[in-house]
Amino acid sequence: MSDAAAPLRPKTVTACVLLIGDEILSGRTRDSNLAYIATHLNRIGVQVREARVIPDVEETIVATLNEVRARYDYVFTTGGIGPTHDDITADAVAKAFGVAITHHPEAVKILGDHYKATGGEFNEARMRMARLPEGASMIDNPLSKAPGFQIGNVFVMAGVPMVMQVMLDSLTGRLEGGATMQSRTVTGQVGEGTIAEKLGQVQARHPDIGIGSYPYYRGKTFGTSIVLRGTDSSALDRAAAEVMALMREFGAEPAMGDPA
Amino acid sequence: MSDAAAPLRPKTVTACVLLIGDEILSGRTRDSNLAYIATHLNRIGVQVREARVIPDVEETIVATLNEVRARYDYVFTTGGIGPTHDDITADAVAKAFGVAITHHPEAVKILGDHYKATGGEFNEARMRMARLPEGASMIDNPLSKAPGFQIGNVFVMAGVPMVMQVMLDSLTGRLEGGATMQSRTVTGQVGEGTIAEKLGQVQARHPDIGIGSYPYYRGKTFGTSIVLRGTDSSALDRAAAEVMALMREFGAEPAMGDPA
Question: Bridge partners of A23?
């Protein structure tokens, strides 16, 4: 049998997101980067399998990064690449990879031009933002210029959401995705405990689809959203139809989509 | 020298938060539980040092829980304790502790009374929510009745934010806090790169205080919030005064608090 006869089954590409920053762990800042990154990656066939929030502590960043970069296809970090003393991510990443960190000539030029144009002083602290681990390549930052960087399978981005978002856009074409996860959502005014047993049977009939049950409350009404996720759209449609039939069986009038 | 002469230094009590659920990793749900839990715990002297978002996969929950419960004083989990097939947290926690999981008589009674009062069917799926690992104690849920539980240093709570919040309130008096972290925020219209070098010197003079720098953008204005965190309020006030003086040196008119 030739290779060409093997079934075409797109591979699964996985990622871990590391949110680096004391401000998220203290509760001061509510993170919005994870949901944005996960949604963005999902569209290009990269599945986020784990996320961690860790403090601005070098040994923690080094150990965590070395653990997760071995386990997942890609690692995306946010936070800690600014000009101040608490911005230690670039140094920690260099340490994790066992390489030196040096001023990157192109980054120095971009930042120098930026501060010349805006009248800001290109001082030593701002020069720190042009330091990249040896062997890293820049991730463009059209917004505030200070670049992120890629080294190996690790992508280091800013923590400020709008800067992180333009960096993620800059990665277009640099990430290789696999199977794209699609989803269907079925919502109905029925308690999840009411349909639970039969929903488990739907799950058992569709082992390649992940079925999640999410109760919701809207004032005096309540109900359940069932989210089906998988890579085969017609299989998803069949399973979603079974969930709709199941909800009707218990007196609900289900609809596709999230609760209104 | 007697023990009484030793300096009174409150101990540090640490915690890890595990957010369990595919819906957070897919980007469908933006988590709000971490910031709430971190803020709540901070007030009673428990410092969240790490958080992880992990999928509804038993072996992942077991391995992660056993890793972090050994490393931190407390572990708080959210998600996966409902009636449906994807609610596997209680079973995974029992497995992590190497104990059986059984119907807890008091939980069965609470849920039975609840469904009798509301007219819902107390079926087998809903009975699952009364299953607790052996040796666990209930965490009350005045809102929707199905309890969370504590086993060892692990607190297992619901994922629905308002249910999680009443469970956290139910824990009042059961958690032993240590030193309470306090904070001061100083905000001024100055670039963080401008003050970075001297801010590093303020940090060096106050090694017991954590100083974080957070740039912000508001339309055409921008600036920096400096957050100082520590357990000694007068030391915090002194360091905050130095940060205000530093911002004035660079022409800003700083104020205490977040950007307006």
Answer: none
Residue type present at position A154: V
CA A114 to CA B192: how far, in whole Å? 16
Which residues belong to CATH 3.40.980.10 in chain B? 3-170
CB contacts < 8 A, A to B, total 200
C-alpha closest to that of B124 among A26, A196, A251: A196
Query: How many Å lie between the alpha carbon of A4 and the closest alpha carbon of chain B?
Result: 33
DSSP codes, B140-169: --TTT---EEEETTEEEE-SSHHHHHHHHH
From the candidate CATH numbers 3.40.50.1820, 3.20.20.70, 3.50.30.50, 3.40.980.10, the one assigned to the domain spanning A3-170: 3.40.980.10
Q: Edge to edge, what strands does the sheet with A255-256 contain?
A: A210-218, A221-230, A182-188, A255-256
pLDDT one-digit tens code per residue, A42-85: 999 999 999 999 999 999 999 999 999 999 999 999 999 999 99
- CB atoms A26 and B37 under 8 Å: no
Three-state DSSP at B75 gives: strand
For residue A109, give the amino acid letter.
Answer: K
pTM, rounded to two decimals: 0.93
Q: How far apart are CA B96 and CA B149, in angstroms?
A: 14
Residue A259 near chain B (CB below 8 Å): no
Q: What is the pLDDT of residue A9?
A: 63
Cα B62 to Cα B89: distance, rounded to the nearest angstrom: 9
ipTM of the modeled complex: 0.92
Class of domain B182-256: alpha beta
